């Protein structure tokens, strides 16, 4: 289930999530929690086998993990946004298996999610250079990302 699919143009007025504080083309997909998961631990699992290359607290996301993966012969960085930073127990350069737990989602409207609702922002950045932009101002800017839903949604 996603409220904000890849590439959607979000404005403060049209956003499916209110109140909204971002504007631009969405560079990832937002995967929502299910009813009843608001106060439970929701695990986030690696969508591919790869190396943990990033683990930090970032404005707009809260906790973020970045994993380097190979997708159909192409190197990408998978961004997992709005995680509880402390729950990311792996260290940088640790090898993750596909399906391995990375951490848990941050609590809604807390510093863990930088005040966002509880959900996962999943982004696939092309190449090997970390890019944490959640939105880009022009549509052509989306060419630096891949729609994760081509690979992970509904699976
Ligand atoms: Zn998002």
Which descriptors would you attach to this protein?
mainly beta; binds zinc ion; 7-stranded antiparallel sheet; single chain; globular; 155 residues; Glucose Permease (Domain IIA); 3-stranded antiparallel sheet
What does this 3D model show about the protein?
This protein has a domain at 31-131: Glucose Permease (Domain IIA) (Distorted Sandwich). The protein has no helices and twelve strands. It has strands at 9-10, 24-26, 28-32, 43-45, 50-58, 62-71, 74-83, 95-96, 101-104, 119-126, 135-136, 145-146. Strands 3, 5, 6, 7, 8, 10 and 12 form a seven-stranded antiparallel β-sheet that branches. 34% of the residues are buried. The structure holds zinc ion (ZN).
Write the layout of secondary structure elements.
Blueprint: E1 9-10, E2 24-26, E3 28-32, E4 43-45, E5 50-58, E6 62-71, E7 74-83, E8 95-96, E9 101-104, E10 119-126, E11 135-136, E12 145-146
Antiparallel strand pairs: 1-2, 2-11, 3-10, 4-9, 5-6, 5-8, 6-7, 7-10, 10-12
Bound molecules: zinc ion.
Zinc ion is lined by residues 4, 26, 28, 30, 121, 134.
In short:
Helix content is about 0%, strand content about 40%. It is mostly beta strands and about 160 residues long. A hairpin with a 3-residue loop joins strand 5 and strand 6.
Counting helices, strands and paired strands, the structural category is mainly beta
Alpha carbon gyration radius? 14 Å
The appropriate CATH architecture of the domain at 31-131 is Distorted Sandwich
Compressed to H and E, one letter per element, the order equals: EEEEEEEEEEEE
Low-confidence stretches: none
The H-level CATH homologous superfamily of the domain at 31-131, spelled out, is: Glucose Permease (Domain IIA)
Quaternary structure type: single chain
CATH class of the domain at 31-131: Mainly Beta
Largest sheet: 7 strands, antiparallel
Report the CATH topology name of the domain at 31-131: Glucose Permease (Domain IIA)
The portion of residues forming beta strands comes to 35-45%
Total strands: 12
Q: Helicity, in percent? A: under 10%
What is the overall number of helices? Answer: 0
Bound ligand species = zinc ion
Average pLDDT confidence is: 95
Please state the overall shape, judged from the principal axes of the Cα atoms.
globular
How far apart are the first and last residues' alpha carbons, in Å?
11 Å
